[in-house]
Amino acid sequence: MIRALILTHRWLSIPLGPLFVLWFATGIVIHYVPFPAQTESKRFAGLAPLDLATPLHGPAEALAARGIDRPGRIRLWQRVDGPVYVISTADRSVAVHADTLATADVANPDLALSVARTTAQRRGIDATGAAVAALDTYDQWTVPNRFDAHRPLYRIALNDGDGTELYVSSRTGEVVLDTTRFERSWNYAGSVVHWIYPTLLRKDWAAWDVTVWWLSLAAVIAAVTGALLGPIRLRLSKARLTSRYRGWHLWHHWAGLLCAQFVLTWIVSGWLSMDHGRLFATGRLTASEEEVLIGEPDWTGLAATALAAVRGEAREIEWFAFGGRIHQRARRALSQQQISVLDGSAPRIIGRLLQPADVNAVTGRLRSDCARSIDVEPGDDHPFASDVPDAPVYRVVCGDTWYHVDAASGAVLDKLDPSRRVYRWLYQALHTLDFPTLLAYPALRTLIIVGLSTLGLAFSMTGMVIGWRRLRVLSIALRRKG
């Protein structure tokens, strides 16, 4: 049994040793420089005020023009070539000119360049030297699945001091991502290596998922066998515990005993990041839950008169279904908005946010044991936050299942059943130390993460040296035998 553990640990650790070193080193980088993503504040800062003085067709006419009867959400925004409806469905995003109902795809690179320049200027970035760099289906920063509805993407280099690049959707004309030279450079030494994220592999999600899952599982086995061998290979000599090893093996043995718990929980939780529904729930709504929480309202009645209900300047108008009724969300600033219910009569203004009573009225139809909604407070064991500053996220507890609804957008952010709650602790909490107590003290959390990762890095380097030496010995032996 011990011999099997030794052989398994040895021959898995030799090829995986360099990967452990890279994982710990790049984990430190990721903590300081996350993977590029466009925040809601940046997106909204690039929006221009809507021109509602021009006669526009209604959202229902835009849906009919593209043959869509069940949209997810509809948004109206002011593009450089006029107001445009963006219709989002489960698997795509399409754009329609609000004044002509013509397709609003971006086939002209000059239009993409104009959108990028205008957006950059509104964000306070110098875009005088901007130029279209490429039209790509995939590149290193747009491989995540959330960009599938927008491919291919125009990459616009602003040629400013920060080396900013904007990505413009060819489907909707929106800026969907921004990166800087600093982010790109450090992410090659961070997320790209840590997640095994080269474009060639990651653009095929299924191949990437299987590859990283099996590599991570092999790493788990290597870590588990090492953790089991650590105490076993100790011996009692003159009333004290000593190691059976010398040299690099000795350093590796004692370092392993010191950080075994951290390495084991970290690698197992990293493997669970690739779970994707294999062992734990995904948090997706069932068809019956969607029927209650979202519903199937009559979108055909959403005429242009809905726009008349918007008072004052708006930079974006959004329509979404919640509880089987269409809601209109007029946004003037990131935190300034007005939500109204459109139910065939005059719009009923709810206020800036969905109210608890509105959410309770809908979620109460899910199950008979649903409690009244409560706000998810900072420091909660299961933290959720809205993209809108100071907007609450409502938690509704229905038996052993929790639903989280964004008061600003009506989006159901997640469904936490017992399996999903366990996953939160085994993955998020253990892998990123996402514990409420530590989140309240970010400097302490950073110190612990960097300290433990450095310890894991040093430990892994001792294993890599041992593996390299063993390969050299094996190579010499094979040459002599040959």
Automatic annotation (TrEMBL):
<feature type="transmembrane region" description="Helical">
    <location>
        <begin position="447"/>
        <end position="471"/>
    </location>
</feature>
<dbReference type="InterPro" id="IPR005625">
    <property type="entry name" value="PepSY-ass_TM"/>
</dbReference>
<protein>
    <submittedName>
        <fullName>PepSY domain-containing protein</fullName>
    </submittedName>
</protein>
<keyword id="KW-0812">Transmembrane</keyword>
<keyword id="KW-0472">Membrane</keyword>
<feature type="transmembrane region" description="Helical">
    <location>
        <begin position="254"/>
        <end position="274"/>
    </location>
</feature>
<keyword id="KW-1133">Transmembrane helix</keyword>
<feature type="transmembrane region" description="Helical">
    <location>
        <begin position="12"/>
        <end position="33"/>
    </location>
</feature>
<feature type="transmembrane region" description="Helical">
    <location>
        <begin position="212"/>
        <end position="234"/>
    </location>
</feature>
